[in-house]
Amino acid sequence: MAAANTVLAVLALLLGVSGVIRAKDPYLFFTWNVTYGTISPLGVPQRGILINSQFPVPNINSTTNNNIVINVFNNLNKPLLFTWNGIQHRKNSWFDGVVGTNCPILPGTNFTYHFQVKDQIGGFFYFPSLGMHKAADGFGGLWVNNRLLIPVPLDPPADDYTVLLGDWYTKDHTALEKTVDSGSNIGLPAGVLINDKPGKDRAPMFEIEAGKVYRYWICNVGIKTSLNFRFQGHAMELVEMDGSHTIQNLYDSLDIHVGQCFSVLVTADQNPRGLLHRDLQLVLEAQGADRHYKNIQQY
């Protein structure tokens, strides 16, 4: 009898250990109420897509192996889908959020996305994928960080910053959709936005401290325009692109095309003056368009 009890105790211990080892990966839960609202990022009031009444919409900050569960309530007057640009839906493509794998979420209904981010450590973004909804915003960053037990080929930066940049049209997204459906060109954008804000006459976007290294997660969330990106007077060390680590070369500027994401390290090492701040210009140039946009961050 004692031997039997010992066996049962050992089995219980093994089952307990097994339960710890096989514990489910963490879950991130979100509820999104998607509506229209009036926005004016370039000073022109227009209809935009909001999530939980927010503009800009929220970013998703996740870690490898996280399960992401998003319950989307469509309160637009048209069908809606969200796609997760660059995320590999391994062994399950049914939540990719594009026509062909998902039925559109009809107005007044909801749908729950459930997918797992794996070992794609890096920066991505999500956006509404039907029609020209993307021209009405509704896009946000989706970052996949490494778990502590997974080594990455770079030291932790002083801080991480999100840079979502892209061309912007002030026409309503339905008008742009009709233009595209007719076979016509939608023309040049009205401007370029950084984190849904124009570069002209705005407050500093990022606080950085002299001598420290910062990581910038950068995505082109625009419609059609490739952009050239640089920090004036500072080199960028490219460390990741679309979820894969890269050979770490230094660049003065980088082209970033629609849908592309990468992350760079920037050292605030140019003529610091003690604890004083100096202006560090973040410059965006729209290729093929007679526009030059600047944004200032403090250093």
TrEMBL record:
Protein family membership: Belongs to the multicopper oxidase family.
The organism's place on the tree of life at top rank: Eukaryota
Signal keyword on record: yes
Alphabetized GO MF terms: copper ion binding; oxidoreductase activity
UniProtKB keywords: Signal
Plastocyanin-like domain boundaries: 33-145, 159-272
Extent of the signal sequence: 1-23
PANTHER family according to UniProt: MULTI-COPPER OXIDASE (PTHR11709), OS01G0816700 PROTEIN (PTHR11709:SF27)
Protein name per its UniProtKB record: Uncharacterized protein
InterPro entries, per database record: Cu-oxidase-like_N (IPR011707), Cu-oxidase_2nd (IPR001117), Cu-oxidase_fam (IPR045087), Cupredoxin (IPR008972)
